[in-house]
Amino acid sequence: MKLPRMSARTFTQYMPILTWGRAYTREQVTSDMVAAVIVTIMLIPQSLAYALLAGLPAEMGLYASILPLFAYALFGTSRALAVGPVAVVSLMTAAAIGNLGLTDPVQIALAAGTLAFISGVFLLAMGVLRLGFVANFLSHPVIAGFITASGILIATSQLKHILGVQASGHNLIDTVGALLSNIGQTNVITLVIGVTITAFLFWVRKGLKPLLISKGLAPRLADIMAKAGPVAAVAATILVTWAFSLNEHGVKIVGEVPMGLPPITLPSLNGTLWGQLLLPAILISIIGFVESVSVGQTLAAKRRQRIVPDQELIGLGASNIGSALTGGYPVTGGFARSVVNFDAGAETPAAGAFTAVGIGLAALLLTPLLYFLPIATLAATIIVAVLSLVDLSILSKAWGYSRMDFAAVAATIFLTLVMGVEVGVSAGVLISIGLHLYQTSRPHVAEVGLVPDTQHFRNILRHNVETRPHLVTLRVDESLYFANARFLEDYVLNRVTCDEPIKHVVLHCAAVNEVDMSALHTLEELNRRLSDMGILLHLSEVKGPVMDRLKRSHLLQDLSGQVFLSQYQAWQALSPAPGDDGPSAEANAA
Amino acid sequence: MKLPRMSARTFTQYMPILTWGRAYTREQVTSDMVAAVIVTIMLIPQSLAYALLAGLPAEMGLYASILPLFAYALFGTSRALAVGPVAVVSLMTAAAIGNLGLTDPVQIALAAGTLAFISGVFLLAMGVLRLGFVANFLSHPVIAGFITASGILIATSQLKHILGVQASGHNLIDTVGALLSNIGQTNVITLVIGVTITAFLFWVRKGLKPLLISKGLAPRLADIMAKAGPVAAVAATILVTWAFSLNEHGVKIVGEVPMGLPPITLPSLNGTLWGQLLLPAILISIIGFVESVSVGQTLAAKRRQRIVPDQELIGLGASNIGSALTGGYPVTGGFARSVVNFDAGAETPAAGAFTAVGIGLAALLLTPLLYFLPIATLAATIIVAVLSLVDLSILSKAWGYSRMDFAAVAATIFLTLVMGVEVGVSAGVLISIGLHLYQTSRPHVAEVGLVPDTQHFRNILRHNVETRPHLVTLRVDESLYFANARFLEDYVLNRVTCDEPIKHVVLHCAAVNEVDMSALHTLEELNRRLSDMGILLHLSEVKGPVMDRLKRSHLLQDLSGQVFLSQYQAWQALSPAPGDDGPSAEANAA
Q1: Which of A278, A513, B294, B484 gives the lowest tally of CB atoms within 10 Å of its CB?
Q2: Are residues A349 and A449 in the same domain?
């Protein structure tokens, strides 16, 4: 039974707001608004910081946190997901735009918007075509390795802002090399601000909340204050920079940020640009979708709710198109902010819309205050946020569990660090698929015998079982398809090319979930070749769906032996062979 | 149990001649020499024709049929395989060389030799690294579709020689278009020769042998005479063309063919050329290997012998390097000639060496006689040979068996015809892998219940079984890996998000041959999410190797439920649940 597909999606299914919106209560409004305030406070510095990480003007981070949130509130199915700029997607945006070799800021912003637009169209198309399963080909080791490597890359890329030097590069070697060659130009004041704020934010994250609670503060309030740590750091460094005119002493500041609501922007329709951005947009879409869906599912399960992955594609697609049309860049559902939103009590997607209003007010009113904000403060915010993504223990976990998974993780981390995000994640996917195919191309095959006094058959190498010299029973622990069909043929022919008087080969098919046409061809060949050797080929315990299909071929007519419903029936029918010793008494009696 | 690997291969294993050579008897020498004479007669016109098909001078076909045969006799494991130029590889060579846009015949010959050299090195490397399994990724539908489409392409490409017009193209549309636009320049004498010889060869193939036998000839002699049909056609058309000077009336002839043994040639070491030829060489190697191994296995099985695929790679690699060093082009084991060799009684690879001597004598003595040979005769030889490869019934067979396999065949045939051989076969491989992954990414999952009065569990949709409202048992008919892990999670969460008072979910894992790290992660998540919903997750009938691996993870400690050895134990332990009806009497009594 396949997953039951929904019949043609109705309008209501495309607009989840029509479901939850009708039952929206006053209590839910209150919860959503409280959550929105907390998320807004957290999102303002993050939005600015991620825009800088993406190599874009700070205000684009704010713009990407307004309309996309409304769009997701309309079309998304998760009740707690908070959409906006996130670290990994910002890094991938930086890499995609960096490859274009643009220098004009207007062109760069246009390219970023176009990237969001292509990504949005791609996500929408995947959603309408219900292609959400494509994301499944990103295996867990590849995602874990990619996120860890991205965290390292992002943190390293921000060190230049902490040191106050020039350095750029889209992989670890370039970035570290550029840092080391310019380290002599370190600006001491910038360094002091950067290190202080980094240390402060780490402390806020680990130590502030327990401290406040121990001082008698209510846990909820302590939590909100801890979340406001980055805002406090922003406010404090703005004040210090302004008071001492630190910008005149080499401290880089954000500078003029346009005041007002996001502008209406249109994506470029330049075919060459689309060609250059298509692959990055697809990778950004899929990575973003995977991040968003895994957060959404985790949070939904906690309240016994469900999200609909194909509808999530539509929600994220609409968000990205919204971002493209209002001066933003690619967005997705972020892990940290969604958890904050959920913990703060958000009950419906309306919380996202309220957050959007908050960010909109910030864009409208607060941008002049950001003039003196040191870049080093934003860099510290990013470093503290992304270091929580870095988890090298995945390497040892994978090593302990399976060498194949380890190879996929290690290759993804290594290639992401050395060759950049796009090569890293693409190679990771190809390596996992290749290793999976390699593994299924050499399936586990066990020669089995009868466990005395039972009707069960077990591996002759692991158990003390009865066998017959003229009868070989092979249990194939894998579906038979093109990649392993010839392996099985080789295996069987190798096994029977010996001095034993083999007369029967039984393939025990209980774990064979599929026999494709290549495997069918191989079974026909095997049947013919064994016949040429005077050996009969039998099948046992063939599954219903596999049998249905085999009946549509010539195999069953041509088969030299029989098809047995159970392996025990095969054993009973095929022993004793004429001239051989009969089977033992207990086997017959069973 | 994996296929037992040979321990480090000994010198004898790399040189199979050391095994059969020691026991070589006088009877075997006689059998081999008779087979060699028959194969030589068949191979002379074929070698010339395939060289022309590859767009190369006719003598290169002879050169490719001398040293490669000695090399295979030294290193190959098949006793009957006949190596040399074959139709599909010649077509692929034409496509590869055609892409280079060369016009100088010397450069073209150099490129063909280099192609054989790269192919030989690649095959040798695959053999030493035991990578023969890579060929398994060419599924049967893809190979069948590719061979059929190649047959059509080759036959069409030869029509210009039958008509005596100019026309070229590497796909069906170009070729047919060029033919139609030049059909007005048809040379009538050429057309008469071409059609007559084609008809004659078809008759020889179908009607001559039965006729000779009905006239009282011994079947063996009738067979040899039928095989000599192409040689007779060659001799007759040479005589007619010479007698009436048809070459002065527009009949294209082979012309001067250098007399003597093959020259010593060296491959180009130009990096750009290697870059351009690498991918074609890999495709040629793999296609050639697959063709050769499938012929070799078929023939070996008839005598209860075995071939060793990894050693075959070495044999074919040596043959191609031999071809490259002596003025030839890529070669492989051919189907038709190997069957002839086998039927003619070849008992050891020495038959191939004797054939090489025969072709060598032809190159040394007979080439002046080939001056007046019409190209149309060679084209007729090719057309008759390749039309036996065309088998469009594979389309209807695949349609009847499985839509996926049909899609792979149809796409391979269509793309090979329209886009050429390289795109066709590459797309076929990618499509089969993609469809396989798609299929395993949506595994068959059955909800099962207890068949009354037994310990067996069956699909609740197909059978009349007992179920319990608080207990859901799902049987997963596929290994769990990254591509289907999330599908399972969605499936289970969808199933339990309902109004029934579900307390237990049992995953029945008898058909789960593998749980990779992504699936492990999903099971951990599923366990956590079900716990959040107050539902316990249990496993039953987990296979030994899978259990070994799961023990190295945290899943078993964290699992909210239990692991049961059999599904029936799970059923007994989990029903009755407190407050529910107890299980029925017969279930308890069983």
Answers
A1: A278
A2: no
Give A-chain residues touching B135 at CB under 8 angstroms.
Answer: 486
What token pair was written down for B192? Answer: 């008469």
- One domain, residues B372 and B388: yes
B5, part of any domain: no
- Name chain B contacts of A462, Cβ cutoff 8 Å: 544
Which chain A residues are closer than 8 Å to B535 by Cβ?
none
Is A494's Cβ below 8 Å from some Cβ in B?
A: yes
Two structure tokens written together for A269: 């329709």
B205 touches chain A (CB under 8 A): no
Interface of A with B in 399-418 (CB under 8 A): 400-402, 404-405
pTM of the model as a whole? 0.77
B457 shares its domain with B391? no
Among residues B357, B384, B408, which one ends one of the domains? B408
Chain B contact present for A531, CB below 8 A: no
The answer to whether residue A106 is domain-embedded is yes
Q: How many domains does chain A have?
A: 2
Report the alpha-carbon distance of residue B137 to residue A484 in Å, rounded.
Answer: 9
Co-location of B423 and B541 in the same domain: no
- The set of residues, in sequence order, having a beta carbon less than 8 Å from that of A430 and lying 6+ positions away, is none
Can you give the residue range of the structural domain that contains B526?
A: 445-589
Examine residue A185 and state whether it is found in any structural domain, yes or no.
Answer: yes
Quote the CA–CA distance of A290 and A135 in Å, as a whole number: 6
Residue B585 clears pLDDT 60, i.e. is over it: no
Nearest to B2 among A297, A309, A442 (CB): A442
Contact B70, B292 (CB under 8 A): no
Across the interface, of A441, A459, A522, the residue whose CB is closest to B133 is A441
Please say whether the dihedral angle defined by the alpha carbons of residues A43, A48, A54 and A57, taken in this order, is positive or negative. Answer: positive
* B445 in reach of chain A (CB within 8 A): yes
Are B243 and B376 in the same domain?
yes
pLDDT digits (tens, 9 = 90+) for A43-73: 888 899 899 899 999 999 999 999 999 999 9
Q: Is position A413 within any domain?
A: no
For B437-495, the pLDDT digits (tens) are: 888 888 888 898 888 887 778 888 878 888 888 899 998 888 898 888 888 888 898 88
Pairing of strands A457-459, A445-450: antiparallel
- Give the H/E segment covering residue A506: strand A504-508
**B379 and B433 assigned to the same domain:** no
Boundary-marking domain end, from A346, A381, A408: A408
Distant-in-sequence, close-in-space partners of A247: CB < 8 Å, separation ≥ 6:
A241, A253, A372
Alpha carbon of B399 to those of A138, A524, B59, B392, B409: distances in Å? 31, 18, 43, 12, 9
Domain check: are B303 and B180 in the same one?
A: yes
Contact check, Cβ <8 Å, B517/A490 = no
Query: Closest Cα of chain A to B79: distance in Å?
Result: 16
For strands A332-333 and A83-84, give the pairing.
antiparallel
> What's B490's domain CATH number?
3.30.750.24
Tokens describing residue A169: 């590069």
Helix (H) or strand (E) holding B235: helix B229-243
In degrees, to the nearest 5, what angle opens at C-alpha B502 toward C-alphas B498 and B503?
150
Average pLDDT taken over every residue of chain B: 86
Tell me if B139 and A484 make a contact (CB, 8 A cut-off): no
Q: Is A54 exposed, middle or buried (0-12, 13-18, 19+ CB in 10 A)?
A: buried
On whether both A370 and A457 belong to a single domain, the answer is no
Q: State the Cα–Cα distance between residues A422 and A96, nearest whole angstrom.
A: 8
Using an 8 Å CB-CB cutoff, list chain A residues near B444: 1-2, 513, 545
**Which residues, including other chains, have CB under 8 Å from residue B410's CB and lie 6 or more apart?**
B145, B395, B398
B5 in contact with A, Cβ within 8 Å: no
CB atoms within 10 A of CB A10: 10
